[in-house]
Amino acid sequence: MAAPVRLGRKRPLPVCPNPLFVRWLTEWRDEAASRGRRTQFVFQKALRSLRRYPLPLRSGKEAKILLHFGDGLCRMLDQRLQQHRSSGGDHASASSGAKSPAQEGPPADVQDSSVPVLAQPKAGGSGSYWPARHSGARAVLLLLYREHLNPSGHSFLTKEELLQRCTQEAPGVAPGSARSWPALRSLLHRNLVFRTQQPARYSLTPQGLELAQKLAESEGLSFLNVVSEPEEPPGEEPEVPRSFSAELGASEGSVQQPQLELRPGEYRVLLCVDVGETKGAGHRSELIRQLQRLHVTHTVRKLHVGDFVWVAQETRPRDPARPGELVLDHIVERKRLDDLCSSIIDGRFREQKFRLKRCGLGRRVYLVEQHGSVHNLSLPESTLLQAVTNTQVIDGFFVKRTADIKESAAYLALLTRGLERLHQGHTLRSRPWGIPGDPESGAGPSPNPLCSLLTFNDFNMGAMKNKAQSVREVFIRQLVQVRGVSGEKAAALVDRYSTPASLLAAYDACVTPKEQEMLLSTVKCGRLQRNLGPALSRTLAQLYCSYSPLT
To answer: φ and ψ at 163, to 5 degrees?
Structure first.
């Protein structure tokens, strides 16, 4: 005989069996992320494992049965739990037991508005994100919100302005480690802040503006009074934690500096060699030995773009450890024939030329060095010759071909001495990042490009390959991977459709597939303002509108 069926309401399971542990792990993860520490990933893995565990835990030691919980983390939980109990709290909120949240009400520890809990949002969206108190992300949002409300402001702040205001809000705090802008990277990823122009200008997206307004209301801040009196003493401003500047931290060279001026006799011309050029079979590469033999004054550094640049280095600096340096308007990219072949095959060839044209220096040299027999290369000689010719004729580079590494070193020595004579007797001054005359660079026209130069820190930071990027920049990099789409064509496409979402919306508005294929055909590209053409337009329509594998 079958057992009788028991009727009645099922007891609901608790939403979170261990809310205190979840809250503490979330706090530790956010703190580590705001300071750029790799321990954030440890806390994140443990948090993910804890959320999957359906039973309450009475101590940190019991959590050791879970994945990613080691002795150190369990000890931290036990210590925090002991502090919580000694301060008058109990462990009822840490392990909900059999009672449901509807019967007990939400634990006070979890719903405490003074310590917001960071929810896990979807990638790229704000979701229910609420930045923790005393975090860099929260302070950045409030600073940008204050600038947005300022009637005499520009609704954006540059990196230097953000750092400067951080220092004013938290006096005595020096910039943090070289890991720059962890808070901004998080906000850019969540689409709460977007970046435009170069140097970068940061402003709030509509979602970021809404969140910043809620943050200001939750803290009872009156920004209208602040913006009407921008020179108020720091004591009357909303309190910003001392860790704020360090969490936003960039290197000390990123902080805005006064204009650097080097008069004749106060500087020397120095060749900077990328560290990648010094790697050889011996302790020093053959190139370095040849430069030493030719008595070329040089230094080895990490260059984010190019292989060789020249700097005018201050000879009598105030700080001997950090002399002032201005980058001369010449940059050299060296390619051996075998490296040229591999870069054409894997796509680095086009990407490197694109980055060289946007590095802020006007005179670009492509040094092609012979290496072995052309018959042993992976591409035919005609293909290499065509690539080199395109680099000179279409991209505007000066191409220099050398027979071996000795001739390359001799050419670099010749360039070094030529630049010394060229700048002899001139006063050199620093300028903002960008190309003089480029409307997007912010540098403006330069009366004398020979003497108006970038500082080395601005040049190298502006050329970083893996820096935080806006959606627009990633979209451009995606487009140039399509065969036939050059940098100019990608820039023209992004000028019309700034994000993939706007392009997809335009495709959705088309009535027929034929209209989708011809949507981009009339986009004007380059200096001659030629049409993109139906072939490329059809290729891009197939890429973004096809749900099946591409043929």
So the answer is: -65, -40
- Give the other-Cβ count within 10 Å of 89's Cβ: 16
Percent of the chain with pLDDT over 70: 72
**pLDDT per position as a tens digit, 370-388:** 877 777 787 888 888 899 9
Per-residue H/E/C for 206-241: HHHHHHHHHHHHHHCCCHHHHHHCCCCCHHHCCCCC
Q: For residues 235 and 171, give the distance between their C-alpha atoms in angstroms, rounded to a whole number.
A: 11
Answer with the residue of higher pLDDT: 231 or 84: 84
The active-site residue out of 27, 30, 307, 314 is 307
pLDDT at 412 over 80: yes
Task: Please identify which of the residues 27, 247, 274, 325 carries the catalytic annotation.
Answer: 274
SS3 41: helix
Tokens for 91, please give them. 């462990």
Cα–Cα dist 516/155, whole Å: 36
State the Cα–Cα distance between residues 520 and 489, nearest whole angstrom: 11
Catalytic residue among 277, 286, 407, 438: 277
What's the whole-number average pLDDT of the chain? 75
Which residues, 6+ apart, have CB-to-CB distance to 91 below 8 Å? 20, 58, 81, 84, 85
d(CA 467, CA 481): 19
Q: Angle 500-509/471-479 helices, nearest 10 degrees?
A: 70
Q: For residue 214, is pLDDT > 70?
A: yes
354 within 8 A of 387, measured Cβ to Cβ: no
| CB-based burial label for 110 (10 Å; 0-12, 13-18, 19+) | middle
Look up residue 47 and give its amino acid.
Answer: L
Least confident of 46-60, 115-129, 269-283: 115-129
pLDDT (tens digit per residue) in 162-188: 776 766 664 443 345 434 556 777 777
DSSP letter string, 93-158: TTS-TTS-HHHH---TTTS-TTS-----PPTTS-TT--PPTT-HHHHHHHHHHHHHH-TTS-S-EE
> What is the Cα Rg of the chain in Å?
29
CB 446 within 8 A of CB 436: yes
Q: One-letter amino acid identity for 513?
A: P
Q: In angstroms, rounded to a whole number, what is the distance separating the alpha carbons of residues 360 and 490?
A: 19
State residue 6's pLDDT score: 56
Whether 274 sits among the annotated catalytic residues: the reply is: yes
Instruction: Yes or no: say if 57 and 94 are a contact pair by the CB < 8 Å rule.
Output: yes
Please report the pLDDT score of residue 332 as a whole number: 94
